[in-house]
Design goal:
With about 160 residues, the protein is α+β, with helices and mostly antiparallel strands. It is built from three helices and eleven strands; from the N terminus they run E-E-E-H-H-E-E-E-H-E-E-E-E-E. The longest helix has 13 residues. The N and C termini lie far apart (about 40 Å).
């Protein structure tokens, strides 16, 4: 299977407006989804504090990506992402895919959703029979550079025009 629902565990972040049940999904890499109970909590949630704490939790020996998600309707969610090893990011395609899958399997959303991220909107469709997610959305160059085979960066320019 391309998509694996890892299971549910109690998450005790109740004071932060998070549902007590979080979703654990793998779409080739692991994702922890925290479903927000209250709409305004999405922007107020201290992802800089809880992201690294959850990323490095002993449950996840290889660390985990962390997402806070608000269900706006059965066809739209809004999310923020903490990517393992990177911190908070403006978008996360595999995270959006994990949210789409969990939304369907947990009856939170329909199988076709818009995912609103700080970096823009993605459209996703989950096909449970195939175990596949189709994602469409914009792509932008954020940097360009030259890297040697050993990983040495020769040049790097952010936001090239």
């Amino acid at each position: 299977d391309l998509v694996t629902l890892l299971g549910d565990h109690d998450v005790r972040l109740d004071r932060e407006g998070v549902d007590e049940i979080a979703s654990f999904v793998s779409v080739g890499n692991p994702h922890l989804i925290l479903w927000m109970r209250e709409a305004e909590r999405l922007t107020q949630f201290d992802l800089a504090r809880f992201g690294p704490m959850l990323e490095h939790h002993p449950w996840f020996k290889d660390r985990i990506n962390v997402h806070v998600v608000r269900v706006d309707s059965d066809r739209q969610v809004t999310m923020r992402s903490w990517e393992r090893g990177s911190g908070e990011t403006s978008a996360c395609g595999t995270g959006a895919s994990a949210v789409c899958v969990a939304g369907v399997l947990e009856a939170r959303t329909g199988d076709a959703i818009s995912v609103i991220l700080p970096g823009g909107r993605l459209e996703l469709v989950y096909d449970p029979r195939q175990g596949s997610v189709l994602m469409t959305g914009p792509a932008e160059t954020i940097c360009a550079g030259v890297v040697q085979a050993d990983g040495t960066i020769i040049s790097l320019k952010e936001n090239p025009e």
